[in-house]
Amino acid sequence: MTDTPPNENVGEARTRPSKSQKSSWATFLKSIASFSGDLSSLTAPPFILSPISLTEFPAYWCERPELFSAIADAKSDEERSILVLKWFISTLKGQYTSRNEKLGSEKKPLNPVLGELFYGYWPDINGRGQTDLVVEQVSHHPPITAYYIANEAKGISLQGHSAQKTSFSGGSIIVKQIGHAVLTVNLPGGGKEEFLITLPRLRIDGLWYGSPYIELAETSYIQSSTGWLSTIEYKGKGYFSGKSHTFKASLSPPGSSHAAHTYEGLWHQTSKDVRTGTIFTDVTSPKEEVTVKSVEEMDDWESRRLWRWVAKGIRDGDFETASKEKSKIENEQRQRRKDEQAAGTQWQLKHFDHVDSDPIYERLGKLFKANPPTEDAYVYRHNHNPGPTQAAASDL
To answer: Which of 11, 45, 92, 116 is deepest in the core (most CB within 10 A)?
Structure first.
């Protein structure tokens, strides 16, 4: 237990470290600094853990569901690419700063177990259509999360997977995000438009002060099958506006390297159209949390049920219980893998099929010389029924 008072925000973890936690943090930093290889295999002290599993992270793609569904209403290829870029930039705050805002600093998410599941939806409000989410942890070593998000009424879907390869450099943790996403829009004329979305690199700073935070780095791309390309540059403090969480995005038309539109600003607050000065993205308003079943209704493999006692321990500041419950889950996983090996069997995925090379990635990646030129993918089987509770919500 910590010797600090509970956080006033209900359900959030305590943020001020005790003396013993500071000592554990110092030990953890030393282990990071002397470690070679992928840091994801290191065990973090419980007090720097987030009460949320990585399996929940794909929900961040759609916490502004009205922006996701609006993509389908575009009247031209150009407008669609603008709306895809606007939606994408608006997802970054939830993905990369929400733990900072809630918990006082960046926390390491719980490392999901193979087969872990997460289901949710955003209801139909004002005719935007219901958006459904299916997530499965398709690999444990390395940790890979596959997801499928779809708004059937609007004819728009997002399929992708993500993994992280971490290393230590210059006092920061560098996270190379592996994977990509493909956004597909069914067009009124019967065709479809596809967008290949690559992922930015992360740099976790503030480690030596005990208050880690994420900064995005380098460049990511959104390539449309029509030829429109968004090039998004991420910079930290001292670039562009001289502030953290800065980005500059250029949208160029087919066959041209000259930007038709340029946007810049802070991806966790607001950005503007450079030419007109009008607001492009504004994520200062509250986001819309994904709707899920109660823990009691969930299957044992669903994320919030699986980790419920670990999460409670972290939120309550009872790190001894959190550590004990976390070890119990991890030991069960190790035993399951041993049993499979002894029986000569292999874990069977529930919702996704693995393919060695994604043809959409290869085709669209050629247009901007993607590196690497090919990537594997996890293809959704379309075998999850949202269920009556979620279907009923679409009547709102």
So the answer is: 116
Judge contact between 45 and 28, C-beta under 8 A.
yes
* Burial class of residue 356, CB neighbours in 10 A (0-12, 13-18, 19+): exposed
d(CA 250, CA 265): 12
| Angstrom distance (rounded) from CA 118 to CA 272 | 35
Rg for the chain (alpha carbons), in Å? 21
Q: pTM of the predicted model, to two decimals?
A: 0.88
d(CA 157, CA 296): 29
Question: Measured between alpha carbons, how far is 298 from 384 in angstroms, rounded to an integer?
Answer: 14
Cβ distance 133 to 119 under 8 Å?
yes
At 320-348, the pLDDT tens digits run: 999 999 999 999 999 999 999 999 999 99
Q: Which two tokens stand for residue 194?
A: 């596809």
Residue 135 — very low, low, confident or very high, per pLDDT cuts 50/70/90? very high
Distance separating alpha carbons of residues 145 and 351, to the nearest angstrom: 12
CA distances from 31 to 19, 39, 45, 88, 352 (A): 19, 10, 12, 35, 36
Q: What is the dihedral of CA 105, 246, 59, 131, to 10 degrees?
A: 150
Tokens of 365: 């990646």
Neighbour tally for 369: CB within 10 Å: 8
Task: Give first-to-last CA distance, the chain, whole Å.
Answer: 44
CA 79 to CA 44: how far, in whole Å?
45
Token pair in block for residue 139: 């690999």
Quickly count: other Cβ atoms within 10 Å of residue 218's Cβ.
Answer: 13
pLDDT (tens digit, 9 = 90+) per residue, 275-293?
Answer: 999 999 999 999 999 999 9
C-alpha separations of 333 from 116, 164, 228, 301, 343 in Å: 11, 20, 45, 12, 15
Domains parsed from the chain with CATH numbers: 1-7+35-396 (2.40.160.120)
Q: How far is CA 9 from CA 13, 14, 238, 283, 287, in A?
A: 8, 9, 33, 22, 17
The encoded tokens of residue 276 equal 């007109």
> Could you tell me whether strands 261-266 and 270-273 are parallel, antiparallel, or unpaired per DSSP bridges?
antiparallel
The DSSP symbol for 293 reads: -
CA dihedral of residues 308, 314, 320, 323 (deg, nearest 10): 60
Residue 58 to residue 37: CA distance in whole angstroms? 26
Phi, psi of 337 (to 5 degrees): -65, -40
Q: Note if the bond before 142 is cis, omega within 30 degrees.
A: yes
